[in-house]
Amino acid sequence: MIRAIFFSIFDVHEGPKVLHQVPADSIAPSNKSSQTPLLHFPSVSSYIIPRPEYCSKLITFCTPAHRVLCQPVCLHSSTYPRNAYTFSIALVLDASTPFASYATVTLKLASLLQTLEEQSRFLSRDTSAPNTGKIYALCEILLEDLNNYCESMIPIDDSNTLNIKLFPTYPPPPPLFPHHVPLSTVRLEILTDPNWDLTMLRVLPHINGINSVKQISLLADADYKLVRKAIEHLLYYGCLLLLDIFSFSASYASTAELASFVEDTDMQEECAAYVAVPPVLSNSKASQSDPISGFQLVELYLKLRQGQTVKSFYVDNVEIVDRIDIRRFITFGVIKGFLYRVHRYAIATSQTSRRKREHKVKSKQKADEPTAAESQIDATESERHQLQMEKFLDGTHCFDEICTELMIGERELMRRLKAFGDVQIICR
Prior knowledge:
Helix content is 43%, strand content 19%.
């Protein structure tokens, strides 16, 4: 929130001076005012109206309670006293307020006022008393509009209009990996514009909460790096959430946040509507006549635990689970934060495993020599698979990541891990 806006100049007789301030007496109070100023102007005047070499640069500094942003401007001309005119319009914010979007506003204000001064001496010819006139009105409207509406449109004269908007600043998006699955939180087809980036337009149809980032790049026939940038852009603006690849061999467990779901009947109704199987897609008469209750949903979520796959969970509760979309059931819990994915990681525990593998390959080559070419091809392919696996066996790469990077299924991954040698699988 903007606490104050003030306009100051370098007066040839008095030095740095505040001409206009909104609210009144917020920066340089009059002698009759008992109000405490937001900052002591004489102490910071050298930053507001600095030496010429520091002009035309964004300056920001903090006091114990506030942050000041300004861009001083120094114009040189023989028409000015001392052949120069220096001014600055500054914004005062709370010290804790993110200031990135306000910096853009400050730069645009300084640029506009400089243009107006160069065109028509809009600033230097203003003889209005302090806290009156067009410049004061500009500061007053700007403060009110930006604080209330985050945008402002102010006519300056017949040829110039000030248009400013505060764009929100979001935290950087979470790290994005090829095995992550983006799920849209808004209706992207409504936001789509034909003038959007071409890669973005090719990516959007494949964002469905099922395809991973790597799969999306393949389906869209687009470069992975460009696809990743497009998805990161949507993540930044909160249009997407990141999920794990859904698989019946995956394992999920509940968190302490499940207690909030147990007590919140509205969330239970929301979940029931989200996971319900449409009647046209259901072959069960019970699922059409008896929608799943909140109690049954809570009971199902409580049965999810480490060491139990989604497949075994489905088999154990088939009468109830058959009435819902199991993928949506898992996704809802992950989105709300009361379910988490139990990932599996592989660690090579033997330091001599590579030498053992090389010895095994050489022994096979000597034992089976129907054709030297076929043996060499098999040995080369086996060695290539083992070398590919080696960099993933340090305990920091989950099965989803390994399968996505190598473009293989989990069954093939387990086969390669067994062929690799002494490998331990951990769940966390």
